[in-house]
Specification:
Chain lengths: ~200, ~200
């Protein structure tokens, strides 16, 4: 099905052009016209793939998380669950240039005000996927011990907030919060989580 | 000096009108003209106080932190340092309507892309003031024990990220992260911080 593959490729091309517009000029500059120009396509070609600016932004936002999910799926197996979960959590932090760009786009799209229902639904979905990632980390780390549902959800809320806060600070104040400090913060947090719940370490 | 007082009042009036524009229509809608209309003033009156849109946004952003600082200064004295620091930290979370609006403005201004040097300097200053607040909390909680400078800064990075992450989630996903859960996350974190450093509790 070469036609379908072309369509998917074109869609990603347009979405990453939208990322570049967001990174260079802010989310307010994204329109079918500016993204078409950035992608080197006609307005008609872009409209053929995305009927509206909102659809384009929604796809661009989901693509950030799709790429992170693909990287997480490709992570090599580590010796212990704790090491594997450290890898998973740090994959959600912008510790290299590629992920810095993606995180900037993620933060810009989240902070963009607007009552548009499609974009709100996408924001909810994307937030939920990261939240589910945090839930996986907490579940796998506390698998061997008894944890109430309330305690579990509380740990998920805390881990997700810590991750998103670190990601934002790495983008906003790279001179103040280093990649090493952010990584330490997450690794320490996961170690202490296992200690608090009395999880035996190998 | 009634003239000076009038000027200060007018400045806050204009800045809070800018907040309302940000909350209702997004930061992209802020201009001297839209803010003047929202404040019920002439464009000339606004220009008399703020020479540019950037100056207006800078002041509006500083005002968010000024108000939080004023509330923190007015906090009643608590029985223990830990309780006082819990109050200080939770004052930085959007747990009521007034602070929700302020936090939305804070996040919108931070996420707004732009290379404007005045606004960048303001963002750095505002971030630094919150970071200093977190430094105060860590210092006062670990006052009686030995902590290396590196450990201290690491705790500040972690507390600040957790606070900003919780604040963002309270604004973005209020249906998923409750005020009670956010408060618990911070209180638990501060308690565990004192436990980790072996601080005796009264």
């Amino acid at each position: 099905m070469p036609k379908l593959i072309d369509h998917a490729t074109r869609r990603e091309e347009i979405a990453t052009a939208a990322w570049r517009v967001i990174l260079q000029r802010g989310i307010g500059a994204v329109s079918v016209r500016t993204v078409a120009a950035e992608a080197g396509l006609s307005v008609g070609s872009v409209r053929h793939v995305f009927a509206s600016q909102t659809q384009l932004l929604s796809f661009a936002m989901e693509l950030v998380i799709d790429r992170a999910a693909a990287r997480i799926d490709a992570l090599p197996h580590r010796r212990t669950e704790l090491e594997s979960m450290e890898d998973l959590a740090t994959e959600l932090l912008p510790l290299d240039e590629e992920r810095r760009g993606e995180t900037e786009v993620y933060l810009a799209l989240f902070a963009a005000s607007g009552a548009d229902s499609t974009l709100s639904a996408t924001r909810a979905d994307v937030w939920g996927r990261v939240h589910a990632g945090c839930r996986t980390i907490v579940s796998r780390l506390t698998d061997a011990v008894t944890v109430t549902e309330e305690q579990h959800e509380q740990e998920v809320v805390r881990l997700h907030a810590l991750l998103d806060g670190l990601a934002a600070h790495l983008i906003w104040r790279p001179s103040e919060v280093s990649a090493a400090a952010a990584r330490t913060a997450i690794v320490d947090h996961l170690h202490e989580l296992t200690t608090r719940f009395g999880v035996a370490r190998p």
